């Protein structure tokens, strides 16, 4: 097992740029730090520094070790801060990113249990999924809500926890729904259609489904913001897809009627974290609430 004191000495030297400067900062003899780093190198079986002139430069193994050390000590600082806040009765910071393709009402349903986990202050931001993945990789976020798991090809250390799935349905303003409901789904051929932005799992699934069913709708709008798409749908500009679980909301908030559900297509939502075993109290509450919903 890695000796974390030795790892800390390595980290301080890498940040300071030399053993002498790190020794001054740590109030230790340079020989002590040098010996501890040599022991760490022996344990890891890799050289972490190489001499360049009078200075030190990280080897490829050293660069890799530094990236892990950055994460380890950042997590340690966050742990200390959260435990201190709990002990002092202060709010626990909960930083969450929501992919812009996730409907806001779905995001609310998934995140709301997190605010019941004691004194939590949630800082929520919406962005492109790729940027959120980069943020969580460097521990600037505690959680990302997404419509897909973390792709292994990104090389980001993280874990995807399923929060549940829902079927897709089509909705429209009452007059438009009445016109195209009969003969659904074949009636969608030639119908004015509003769709989610390129790259969303809903859009990709529906594109495949349209092709399999031989349906060719007339695409009149493509939206990255699902709320804007629903607003256009409410105004009667076209038929639009949405998670079937939101049928009541579509009828109430958006005055839109159900045409029908799509067989064979579901959208799954994920909580993506950097930890396999969830520990942040808000993240645990969100995961437990999702499990309870699936059990009903």
What is the CA-based Rg, rounded?
26 Å
Question: Can you identify the CATH superfamily of the largest domain?
Answer: Periplasmic binding protein-like II
Largest sheet: 6 strands, mixed
**Sheet/helix structural class:** alpha/beta
Q: Identify the CATH architecture of the largest domain.
A: 3-Layer(aba) Sandwich
Give the H and E element order: HHHEEHEHEHEEHEHEHEHEH
Number of strands: 10
Annotated CATH topology of the largest domain: D-Maltodextrin-Binding Protein, domain 2
Strand % is 25-35%
Pfam families: HTH_1, LysR_substrate
Domain HTH lysR-type: 2-59
GO molecular function: DNA binding; DNA-binding transcription factor activity
Family: Belongs to the LysR transcriptional regulatory family.
Describe the structure.
The structure is a single chain. This protein is α/β, with parallel strands linked by helices and 296 residues long. It has 3 domains: 4-84, Winged helix-like DNA-binding domain superfamily/Winged helix DNA-binding domain (Arc Repressor Mutant, subunit A); 85-164 and 269-294, 3-Layer(aba) Sandwich (D-Maltodextrin-Binding Protein, domain 2), CATH 3.40.190; 165-267, Periplasmic binding protein-like II (D-Maltodextrin-Binding Protein, domain 2, 3-Layer(aba) Sandwich). The chain has 11 helices and 10 strands. The protein has helices at residues 4-16, 19-26, 30-44, 60-88, 104-111, 129-137, 174-181, 201-213, 226-234, 247-252, 281-294; strands spanning 49-52, 55-58, 92-99, 120-127, 143-146, 159-173, 192-196, 218-223, 240-243, 256-273. Strand 7, helix 8 and strand 8 form a beta-alpha-beta unit. Helix 1 packs across helix 2 (19-26), helix 1 (4-16) crosses helix 3 (30-44) and helix 2 packs across helix 3 (30-44). The mean pLDDT is 85. This is LysR family transcriptional regulator. Keywords: Activator, DNA-binding, Transcription, Transcription regulation. Belongs to the LysR transcriptional regulatory family.
